[in-house]
Amino acid sequence: MLTISPDFVRTLYESADAAHAFDHVLRVTRLAVHIAEAEGANVEIVRVAALLHDVAGSRHDHHLASARMARELLAEAPPTFVDAVAHCIEAHRFSQPPEPLTPEAKCLNDADKLDAIGAVGVARAFAFAGAHGGRLWTHPLSELDQLIGPDREAYRRAHGGTQDYTPSHEFLCKLAGLADAMYTATAREIARERHDFMKAFFHRLDAEAQGLR
Ligand code: ADP
Ligand code: NI
Fold first, then answer.
1. Ligand 1 pocket mutation, candidates 55, 60, 108, 128, criterion most atoms within 8 A of CB
2. Taking each helix axis from N to C terminus, what angle separates 22-39 and 103-114, rounded to the nearest 10 degrees?
3. Nearest 10 degrees: CA dihedral of 40, 120, 117, 82?
4. Closest Cα to atom 25, ligand 1: which residue?
5. Element (H or E) spanning 45, and its range?
6. What pLDDT, on the 0 to 100 scale, is given for residue 60?
7. Cβ of 155 less than 6 Å from ligand 1
8. Contact (Cβ atoms closer than 8 angstroms) between residue 62 and residue 56
9. Contact partners, residue 176, CB within 8 Å, separation at least 6
10. Cis (ω within 30 of 0) for the bond into 140?
11. Which residues of 92-126 are buried (b: 16+ CB within 10 A; e: fewer)?
């Protein structure tokens, strides 16, 4: 059977963008393995699923395409192992079905969400905005809140990736809700500090962007 090592997997991610590059995969793998150990989930399933979770890129259906690629790469592994890994990968998206049903899928889903918040989450949101020609800041959070309205996911679907959708928009539409959406107690605990730091960052950005402080 093919050995799924970080060095082998690195070669599969050479064309990935900054927010989904191999360093994202390594961070998610470390977090996911840590959560799996703490939660008593199967660490090998979680490790292999984390290493392959974005292998098909970052398009809207990449969770399904990555699960298919993982099945091909793991063709000689026991079918129950392959099914378990594929389910983790299919269920790793926060905003898209299917829901994670197994302890292993919950570990990967939570690790991927942890990598979208905290200092790394802020850095990834700005890397994404930079790559899409977006602006650093346009409005204070209180005004954005009014602008975005109650259906944050609909706003993100309509405006995400456009020039006027800044990391502060991403914070309100998606990132601010991730800490409360964790499946495991271990990730919820890690998320708390990351969430508070990220929230403080975006509030401070409001003050500095308006020439205050
Ligand atoms: P996933 O692959 O987990 O579904 P996404 O592809 O939606 O996640 O996002 C990957 C990373 O890029 C996240 O950290 C997210 O905050 C950031 N990102 C995605 N879309 C935007 C955007 N329109 N503006 C700023 N950051 C974004
Ligand atoms: Ni993904």
1. 128
2. 130
3. -40
4. 125
5. helix 43-52
6. 86
7. no
8. yes
9. 195, 198, 199
10. no
11. bbeeeeeebebbbbbbbbbbbbbbbbbebbbebbb
**Ramachandran class of 100: left when φ > 0, alpha when ψ lies in -120 to 50, beta otherwise:** beta
- Counting as low any pLDDT under 50, the low residues of the chain are none
Mean pLDDT of the chain: 94
Structure tokens at 108: 């990967």
Identity of the amino acid at 125: A
* Burial classification of residue 52, based on how many CB atoms lie within 10 Å of its CB (0-12 exposed, 13-18 middle, 19 or more buried): buried
Residue nearest (by alpha carbon) to ligand 1 atom 3: 93
CA–centroid distance, residue 165 to ligand 1 (Å) = 12
171 touches ligand 1 (CB under 6 Å)? no
